UniProtKB/TrEMBL annotation:
Protein name: Outer membrane protein beta-barrel domain-containing protein
Gene3D superfamilies: 2.40.160.170
Organism placement in taxonomy: Bacteria, Pseudomonadati, Balneolota, Balneolia, Balneolales
Superkingdom field: Bacteria
Keywords associated with the record: Signal
Signal peptide feature range: 1-29
């Protein structure tokens, strides 16, 4: 939390600095571009607007989902059903300090990313002389979520408003999402295991920055 509170004013300062630089150059005729994105934020698109010869703004959304059922060996105790859902909306400012394709970017992302996992018993257990079927043992479910308002900083190469009206961008950065939150639930004999959520949160507390790599194809409309 303390690191995130430091990052937010840093991002705002960078954005204000870039906007103030608009006053040092010449305004350009407003242009628009559309982008198709693919990367670690998911697959999606953006609308970009040129406000100044060195300043562009853009807004977009990215989505992706993946699920995997891992069926273990017959003599193992559990099967695992896992899922990843990427869902984020972004508002960005791009600053091209040298007026070319190189850029520094900052903004805010609404982060709806989640990771889920469910452990499903597949064998009967003997406890204290009593035998319990898998359905009596119950299932254990976990969901990992992140702070919904996430500052972003990055750098990239590409400018939809310079040169050809069609081209490609690449961007590398990080979403400063804070420590993950873990919610666990269980039923049956596994119900007490749900109390381990805080321990899992502590184990994941290092994962405060989500790496972002994005490749984009753009087309300038005017």
């Amino acid at each position: 939390m303390k690191n995130r509170m430091l990052i937010i004013p840093t991002v705002l300062t960078v954005l204000m600095f870039m906007l103030l630089l608009c006053g040092t150059g010449h305004a350009v005729a407003q242009s628009f571009a559309v982008k198709a994105n693919a990367g670690t934020k998911g697959i999606g698109g953006e609308l970009a607007v040129s406000l100044h010869e060195k300043i562009n703004v853009r807004a977009g959304a990215n989505f992706f989902s993946f699920s995997y059922f891992y069926e273990t060996e017959p003599d193992d105790d559990f099967d695992l059903d896992a899922g990843l859902s990427l869902s984020n909306y972004s508002a960005m400012v791009d600053w091209h300090p040298f007026g070319n394709r190189f850029r520094l970017s900052g903004g805010i992302i609404y982060n709806g990313n989640t990771v889920t996992a469910e452990m499903q018993p597949k064998q009967s257990y003997e406890i204290g002389g009593d035998i319990y079927a898998p359905e009596e043992l119950g299932n254990l479910e976990a969901e990992v979520t992140f702070s919904p308002i996430t500052p972003y900083l990055g750098l990239g190469f590409g400018n939809a408003f310079r040169g050809s009206s069609f081209g490609m961008n690449v961007e590398l950065g990080a979403m400063f999402q804070g420590s993950p939150r873990v919610n666990m639930s269980a039923d049956g004999l596994l119900a007490p295991s749900a109390s381990q959520g805080p321990q899992f949160e502590e184990n994941l507390s290092w994962f405060t920055a989500y790496p972002v790599l994005t490749l984009s194809l753009y087309y300038r409309i005017n």
